[in-house]
């Protein structure tokens, strides 16, 4: 019985990792569509959202099947609970990426306006948060997961800065109001994406330690020396 359950869990891990890869790629490409004002790329991203939805349902059904057939306990049970939640978070991130792609479509048909540099930095940090959260899942690494919680505050600060810049730009350039509103929406989606990446990190902490990390973000403090080296990102 235990060996059968382990095989099913191993297959489930492969599926959630496949979903993770698709979602990461979709988010990255959605921001590229915004920067390049690429309507064709935006179309492809929106179409891919159906693929993400199908994988999400498949993963959830597998989790429920394992729960019903094998009645796992302890760490295996926490893993399945975490995967159900992470599965949902990834689907929501896919939705946000599709929403960003829709804004890219709109921007492609409008007179170009400068994209705030802080917005691009915000996008990079949000993508890095997601990559690190998923690395934490792959490596069952609680330290990486806690670093994601800390990084969310940085994205929140950037979001405030972007909004102030956009407000100033709107006051100075009402003729570009529609385009600026679309950029504002992209910033809002990125802020929400960072929240979803944070939720994934919290689920990894629960999976590894049995600790519910919600509302404890301020507890996690790290020296910069604890940051992974190399390219500065989790992948």
Which terms summarize this structure?
235 residues; mainly alpha; Methane Monooxygenase Hydroxylase, Chain G, domain 1; elongated; disordered C terminus
CATH homology superfamily name:
Phosphate transport system protein phou homolog 2, domain 2
Q: How many β strands by DSSP? A: 0
- Elements, N to C (H/E): HHHHHH
User: Pairing-aware structural class of the strands and helices?
Assistant: mainly alpha
CATH architecture: Up-down Bundle
- Principal-axes shape call: elongated
Describe, in plain words, how this protein is organized in 3D:
The protein has 235 residues and is mainly α. It has a single domain (2-226), classed as Methane Monooxygenase Hydroxylase, Chain G, domain 1 (Up-down Bundle), CATH 1.20.58. It is 80% helix and 0% strand. It has helices spanning 2-36, 39-70, 74-108, 117-139, 142-172, 177-209. Helix 1 (2-36) runs antiparallel to helix 4 and helix 2 runs antiparallel to helix 3 (74-108). The chain is elongated and about 65 Å long. The two termini are 36 Å apart.
In short:
The protein has six helices and no strands. It has helices spanning 2-36, 39-70, 74-108, 117-139, 142-172, 177-209.
Layout: helices, strands, pairs:
Layout: H1 2-36, H2 39-70, H3 74-108, H4 117-139, H5 142-172, H6 177-209
